[in-house]
Write a structure and sequence with these properties.
Elements (H helix, E strand, L loop, with lengths): L12 H12 L18 H17 L6 H18 L56
Helix pairs in contact: 2-3
Amino acid sequence: MVAVVPQPEFDRLEDWLSEYFLPMFRRTLGGELRWCRQWWRHGEAISRLNALWHSWEVLRTQPGTGIATWYRDHLDHQLPLLLGARGPFYQCSEDTHREPHQATADPAPDGWWDLAEPEPAEEPGGHRGEGVAAGDGRA
C-alpha cells in the first residue's frame, strides 16, 4: 500500500494568510490587540505565521482531532503573542506601519565562550577554589 501525501491547500504563506487566517480569525483591533497591514515587514511575524501555516497544513488532514490539536498546540499559543500589545506589531496600528525597534548587543569579550575551564586557584589554607565565580553569566 502506497501512502498518499496530501498536497498543501496553499502554496504560499501570503495566500494562507489572506484566504484563510485573516477571514477566519477576526478580532477587534486596538488596545491589547495589534495588527500591521504590512505584516511582511516584521520578521518575527513572518516566522510565527509560517509556523502556524505549516502546522495547519499538516494537522488539517489528520482525522479526528487534528485541527483541534492545531488550535490547542499552535494557534492558542501563537495568536496572543502575535497580536499582543508587546508583540511584533506593538508600534503599528491597522493602518500605520512603524519599523520595529531592534535590540542591540555588545560582543562578548575575547575568550568568553571558550570551553576550557581555568585551573582552580589555591585558596588560603590549602583549599582549591571553584575557578569561575558563580553567577558570572557563563554557561
